[in-house]
Amino acid sequence: MNKTIIININGIVFHIEEDAYETLRSYMIDIKRHFGKSEDSKEILEDIENRIAEMFSERIESGRKEVINNEDVNDVIAQMGRVSDFDTADESYGEGYTQQDYTNNQSFSFGKKLMRDPDDTVISGVCSGIGHYVGLEARWVRLLFVLFVLLGGSGILAYVILWIIMPVAITRADKMEMRGEAPNLQNFKKNFEEEMSGFRENFSGAGDSLSQGVRSAGDVIVKILTVFVKAIGLVIAFSIGLSLLGLLIAVIFFAFGISGFSDNGIMYPVNFMEPNQAYIALIAAAFAIAIPMIAIFYSIIRALFNKGSMNKYVSISLFIVWLLATGVSISYGVNTMKDFKEESTIVEEKPIQRQAVYHLSERDVRVIKVEESNTKRTIKIDDRDLSDFLKNNIRVRVEKIDSLKAPYIKYEYSSRGKNYQLATNRASQIRYQVTQDSLGIHFDSHFKLREKELYRDQEVTVTLYLPVGSKVIIDRSLEYKLRDISYYDCKVRYEEDVKETEWNVTDLGLKCAIEPKEETPENQEVTIEQDTINHNDDETNVNISKDGIKITTKNSKDTLVNIGKDGVRIDTKQKDKK
């Protein structure tokens, strides 16, 4: 019976036969002799020992035995490979024998393991681990998860579940299995050399005196900041993408008049400018806004997914287009603002008939008629083309006059222009009407501009002057056009929802005919019982009856003040008690 020896490999205790121990010892000496020549060899030796310990543990568990024999050691060596094997392969490279040929000649195959990659993480390494498993770059897997989140939010739940169930590839052997590489000496050496080469390239010149604790803390902070910045970047990129889509839709709507009403396609805000200039200015403004947004969007995507820089000629071309578009937009904008420089107001007064009750209401002029004879179905309002433009910048006021004077209406039409004459001409083109019949006075809901007139802050103010003592009923349709009075304050005085309110013209102006309700304070209570009135507040009680008036305190039955048939008595003992 062979002698048994107890050994410790990376903290794991094994019972091994003496001849198997000698074989393993000789194998480890060869490994240490080979890898000991390189710098930082301790890490790779620990990884190799850790892998050997894992393989021994698997054999003990699968074979249900307690002692490692020579057959087990030879099988492990066969899987791991000998130093002499890849030394021979290195010498044979010049003869057409490659490292890949060596790997392909191994009799052992290893499948990939689904594990999280800690070396390529945005949040936890789930996407990079899946990328290794399915053979895709991590950036495409991340993009798929982002799309799932945006389309329905299912990507978040799937990511969290994978984060929980996927183990982390901590050791070098784990990382090799994650990539589908056999955990043998050849691949251990290759991975170690690649890792050290990358480390030297990226971190050459770093201070060796920096403690491990400080480096770890710095790594954690950098990762947290990286995750935070990338999350913000995704939100910003998504917002910019939506904004670009909205800008494109807006350009299509405004440039081509997709509104269903206008024949000439000029819609707000395009009607700020001349029709022949509006489309050029709109397209230039769209480019001036969109190009910087595209640049920011591309920069964020490039930073998140490690994309290359934009083509040099494309960048220069976009910059030139942006400069031209910005210049055109500013030029048209300045010229448009100059056309708002001067303001002119035209005043017109017209008499109205006296009425017992003045009923004020709004007449909706948006009456649509379709001409069946016209195959294009030109839409008109009150038999006029909608290109006359309807505006509702209307203010309605009611003012008092002497009761002996006749009522009248004053119209004020205002507009702007680059000079006073042009502003006056535009104001004179405003068409607005107030009509009076037996039912009352009717205010048009909108005023009209002449065909293809530009928007220049046109407004209409209508002031109705009524004699003091007049009774006025105002329809709810005028609520938002009234000025100087609160229609709502009068409306809430009614016990139910009403469509019209009643007002009186007084010396102080127009006042609601319904008086406001008086509210009793919450801390007071008034009760009437037969011929007695009791009034209670927080501190005193007041009793009024046919016998007189008594005032007492809540905490005492003594009377402070008694006013009766015998006169007035005031008790001052209460003050002394205090």
UniProtKB/TrEMBL annotation:
It comes from the Bacteria. It holds the Pfam family PspC. Keywords: Cell membrane, Membrane, Transmembrane, Transmembrane helix. It is a single-pass membrane protein. The keyword Signal does not apply. The keyword Cell membrane applies. It is found in: Cell membrane. The chain crosses the membrane at residues 143-170, 231-258, 278-301, 313-334. Residues 209-340 form the PspC-related transmembrane region domain. Residues 384-513 form the PspC-related ToastRack domain. GO terms for cellular component: plasma membrane. Residues 112-168 form the Phage shock protein PspC N-terminal domain. PANTHER family: PHAGE SHOCK PROTEIN C. This is PspC domain protein. It comes from Sphingobacterium spiritivorum ATCC 33300. The lineage of its organism: Bacteria, Pseudomonadati, Bacteroidota, Sphingobacteriia, Sphingobacteriales.
